[in-house]
Structures are given as C-alpha cells and as structure tokens.
Amino acid sequence: xxxxxxxxxAGYIPFHDLVTSDGKAFETVFQWNIAIPVTLFAFCGIGLAxxxxxxxSPIADRVSxxxxxxYTAAYHKFYMDEVYLFxxxxxxxxxxxxxxxxxxxxVIDATMNGxxxxxxxxxxxxxxxxxxxxxxxxxxxxxxxxLLAVVFMLxxxx
Amino acid sequence: MDILSxxxxxxxxxxxxxxxxxxxxxxxxxxxxxxxxxLIMAFHLLFKYLAERRAGNIAEMVFVKSHLWYQxxxxxxxxxxxxxxxxxxxxxxxxxxxxVFASWMTKELPREFFISLIFLSSGVFGFFISxxxxxxxxxxxxxxxxxxxxxxxxxxxxxxxxxMKLTLMLMGGSALLVLGLLGIYFNSAPNGGQLTFxxxxxxxxxxxxATQKFFxxxxxxxxxxxxxxxxxxxxxxxxxxxxxxxxSMLHAGVLMKLGGYxxxxxxxxxxPDAAVQMGWIFLIFTTTSVVYxxxxxxxxxxxxxxxxxxxxxxxxxxxxxxLMINKTAxxxxxxxxxxxxxxxxxxxxxxxxxxxxxxxxxIHEMGGLMKVIPFLAVIYVIAGxxxxxxxxxxxxxxxxxxxxxxxxxxxxxxxVCTIIATTAIVVTAVxxxxxxxxxxLGPIKNAHFEELKDAxxxxxxxxxxxxxxxxxxxxxxxxxxxxxxxSLTPIVAKLSVIAQ
Lengths: 158, 500
Known about the structure:
The complex is a heterodimer. Chain A is an all-alpha fold. Chain A folds into two domains: 10-75, no CATH class; 77-127. Chain A has helices at residues 2-10, 15-18, 32-53, 59-67, 69-75, 80-126, 134-157. In chain A, helix 4 (59-67) packs across helix 5. The longest helix of chain A is centred in the middle third of the chain and has 47 residues, at 80-126. Chain A starts with a helix and ends with a helix. By secondary structure, chain B is mainly alpha-helical. Chain B has one domain (6-499). The interface between A and B is medium-sized, with 15 and 16 residues.
C-alpha cells in the first residue's frame, strides 16, 4: 500500500525542475491531445481485462484461439528473450568477441612478438662479425670506404 | 621552494624516510604518511588554484617558476599548472595514496617495492607540472622505467616476459617522442631567435604546416602507445595481468593518462594545423580502440585481462574525444581520464584483493562471492556500475559529455565514428554484468571460499578513498568541469581557428 500510494503520487513531483543538465528547469507543455486518448486506451485495457478475467469466462480462450499466431507470439513476449540470447551469445560473444580476441592474440600481439623475434634473430646473425680480429675489421673498413668511393664516383660521373 | 616542486620533492623525502626506517611496519607507515601529505598538498593546490582564478588571474598557467638548467640548449626546469594539470595531480595523489594501502601486505622486499612505487609517482607528478618539453620528457621516462623492475620483481605469471614487453613497447613510444620533441624544438623559432623547449613560448609561434604534419604522427603515436592506442596496446593486457596490485592501479589509473595528456598538451596544442588536418586518420584508430577493447574484454576469462581490455576501450575514448576538437568533447576527455583513472584503480585494487583470497583470477572458477565477502563484492558492483556509466557516478558524467560533444560535429564522418563508439556503452554493460553475475552471484563454487575473510581496515582505506572520489565526481561534476573548461579555452581556441 505504501509503494502504491507513492507510485500514485510520484507523478506530482516536479522532475522537470529537479533533473536538469544546465541548471535551468526543463520547459514542458501538457499535450492534452496525446494524454486523453492514451489514458482512455489504458482504461479500455483495464476494462477488457476485467471482463475477461474477473470471473471465469470462455471469452479469453475464444480470443486467444481467434488471434492464433499473434497470441502465441505475445504469450512468448514476442520472443524477446530468445532474440536477446541470440544477439548476446551468438553474435556478440561468438561472432564478434571471439574473433577479435583471436585476432588480438594471433595477429596484433604476434606481430609485436614477431618484431621482437626479428631483432633477436638479427642480433644473433650479426654477432659473429664481432670476431675481435683487427685485420678483419680493417679489411671491412677499407672495403666499405672503397665501395662508397666507387658509388660516389659513378654517381658523379653521371 | 615553490608549491609545485614540492610534488616532486615530497616523494624523494619519503624515499629517504623509507631508507632510514627498519622493518615492514616502518616502511608502510612512512610511505602512507608521505603519500598522505602528498594528497593533502594536492587538495591545498586545488583550493589555491581556484582562489587564484577567483582573484582574477587569467594567465594560461599559474604558479609558474623557471630555473635555467642547461644554457646552451636553453633547457629550463619550468613548472606551472592550469585546471587540467591540477585535476591530473589530484587524480595521481588519490591513486598513489590508495595504492600504498592496497600494497600494505607486500612482504617480499617491501622497502624496495615502496621506493620504486613512490619513485614512479614522482615521475608522474613531475610530468604533470612541467611546461618545458625536455623536463616533461625526463619525468616521463622516470615514470616509465621503474615499471620494468616493479613487474619483473614483484609480478606474477610470466612476469619477465610481460615486463620486457611493456618496457620495450613504451620505450619504442619514447623513441618516437624524442624525434617529435626535437622536431618541435628545432622549429620553435622559425623567424630566427633562440630555440626553446617551453610549451607556452612554442604555442605563440607558428611552426610551418609541412613540418607540423611530418612530426605530428611521431608525437601522437609516441604518446598513443602509452594511451593504449590500437594497435599498440598489446603491452597493456600482459603487463597489467603480471603486475602487482598497486602497480596495475598506478599504471592503468595514472600512467596511461600521460598518453592522453601528452597528446593534448604537446601534439595537438603545439602542432594544431596537423592535428586538424590529420586528426581524421587517428580518429579511425581511436574509434577502433573504443570498440575493439570493449569486445576484446567480453571474451576474456582472467579478471585482469578483462579490466586491461576495458582500459583500452576507455582510454581510447579519451583520445577519441580529444580528436573531436570542440570544448565539450575535450572536457569530456579530461573527465574520462579522471573517471577511468579512479575506476580502473578501484577495479585493480579489488581484483588484487579477491585474488589474494581465492588464488584465482579465472571468472569461471569463482561464484557466490557476494555471500562471503560482501564488502568487497558491493564495491565491485559499484565500480562496475561506474564503468558502464550509471548516473551519479563518475563514468556517466565523462561519457555523456564526450558523446554530447562528439555529436556537435555535424559532418557524416564524425557522426559515423560517434555512433560506432557509442556501441561500446552497450558492450561495456554486457561484460561488466556478466562478470558481476559469474563472480559474485549464484552458488559458492569452492568450499574453500566459505572461509574467506572480508576486507581488512587498510583495504577499506584504499577502496573508500577511490570510491569517495568516484561519487564526488559523479554527484558534483560542475566544479571540476568548469575548472577544466576554463583551461581548455586557449587550446580549443587555437584549434578551432584552424578548423574553420
């Protein structure tokens, strides 16, 4: 009863004054042309439910049979639960998140690890060049200088 | 000693204090007192900053002090703050203070652990107070490098691999930053005169557009690596999963924000033409980050991995909002940095506390924890609600501001990016509610869990510190938002002129 009373009175709380994004009250206009038909529609629903369910009556069964597939769909809440499970489990989890997690681990992360592996491989491959033999260093140095000189001479000759 | 340099000095004095103490108890007490003083100083700075602005000081940066450091390259130790920096200092102080209490039971080399943690925090404070690019970069490195030791020594799982990966990737980002910063320095006097590293002085000159466009990607990606920008985010899940609790808190809560802050303060502010002209390229990457991180989180089973991927999404949102180049979205970006910093620190603290009790982080091995550790469980739910943007908590304010600001861009490209990014809100709700359901609700899966003890006093101090801040930002966001917006004015004005 307490909750019902509060629910009935909650509409009188001026939320448009209290909840605001910019400190100013939200301006509202009462739309009678919408409010009246909607309220009447709600009362019709209450009346219809009263006629069909207040006392045991065959009307409800007859209506449900007459509506056929629409009644079945409404009875199953228009399959919203099934749609929700399909969207979350099959699409979000199975078709999007799982491939993304795989892609992240096996492509993005593997690329970064691959770059690291290339660095290690290159380092291993060239470490033999550091032999400590001065003759070898001298030979490489002079060869490089000669090679550069040849390249520059060829370029200059053009 | 100026008020800002104290933020670097107090951590060093705390470290000296730790070195002078003996035993675990002394180390804890000195660390808590030191970081407590730091937190009080942050509040003092906040009130002093607000008073300064109320008194009519409209300078871009206040409390500016400069000392010549290296004359031949015109390097100065120059400090100063605006509203954005003050907000980031507040965030850092809160997270570090909470982190000290979350590490209360560190028994393995506690003195070295707390020294490394506090040393790292000094780098973060130094970064936020610096307005000289060289000094800023120096503090950036101080903040990044101790991470290797903290994860490598005190981490769990494949800690050596994770520490190496995190450090190398962040150092790769640093290498790009050096190139970008030197590019700015050598073009800081296009009409002749002395070259400078000072942000305020560089902001007054116009660097040639071609030069801006050459160096902007270096700076954006360099800072973006730390901000977990897709596809350079892979250090984050492994690094966070292996890091000890307080390090995860500090890293995700504060260190990742250096990326977003750097992009705003350095890349976009100093190279505005390039930011406007090339922003769309990076907007594609950040939009991808936002959605990719959220979907990546769904499939994870490890709590830390879930939070790490969630951080990729949330930090992506920061850079996404910055690239929207309008005041509302950029205000949202800063609010998101603060909100995510608090939320993720709270999450990592909780994950560490839960792991310390259950010895597992696999969500499928847990269940029914609400019955045995209700305090921790309720805080976990509140943190989750903040993450998915429940009104009244910090996440709502930040994300709402970002998306309202993003929608102010009327062109199709920005609208499409915004619509794609907003899907992350729904995805976030999915993985948060899924974890809450699996972890906290249902039957207790393991008989050993029934003997678990709820939060201790020091854990409560850590959690409540962060929780109060989350509620404070969520319930009274306008003072913070106004402070940030005022400081964004010169940055947005500069970018807007070019955008038009």
